[in-house]
Amino acid sequence: MxxxxxxxxxxxxxxxxxxxxxxxxxxxLLAIFLRTGxxxxxxxxxxxxxxxxxxxxxxxxxxxxxxxxxxxGLGEAKAAQLLAALELARRALGEELAxxxxxxxxxxxxxxxxxxxxxxxxxxxxxxxxxAQHRVIACEELFRGTLTQTSVYPREVVKCALRHNxxxxxxxxxxxxxxxxxxxxxxxLTRSLRSALALVDVxxxxxxxxxxxxxxxxxxxxxx
Length: 224
Prior knowledge:
- By secondary structure, the protein is α+β, with helices and mostly antiparallel strands.
- It has helices at residues 12-19, 26-34, 43-54, 57-61, 65-70, 76-99, 106-117, 154-163, 184-198, 218-221, and strands spanning 124-130, 136-144, 168-174, 203-211, 214-217.
- It has a five-stranded mixed sheet with strand order 2-1-3-4-5, sandwiched between helices.
- Strand 3, helix 9 (184-198) and strand 4 (203-211) form a beta-alpha-beta unit.
């Protein structure tokens, strides 16, 4: 049965307009975006299939154009719309961070990092460079690794901070395993980077571990 044949109170779009977006499931929100399904299946059925295929919403949003085009029901138009919507959300969060003190917007920092890193199938290490007012200057992906680890060189992180004339940095990396807990190696790396950056008067404000739909803050855990 097509969604248009459902009772109005059960249709995702009508539910969103009545209740707002928060009560809706990931599949319902995705169905509103996709608008149409396939022959014999509704947009909601297609949304559930896509979430099942990719394993999670974050993995779907982190998919490459090629991966999206391989998915049943996603043609070039819908794949392009999905990628554009994700990039718009990322840029909006980036604009928010560029005009506000990053320390006063931990939610925005976490959301930005989830959109940037969650769902990657390999480890990625990034640095968010901040000015003296802790506003974002740039975000750079510095290192890539394997499924379980990446090599981070303090000298390169220091060079990046100096290149942007940064006064502070927020560090982040992802855990493709889905567990947002720091390892002993993560803690040792953070201490090493903090010491190296202190030599050039650059402060490490935080280090985030990103996994699926969660982030872990070193500062909140008292690990900095």
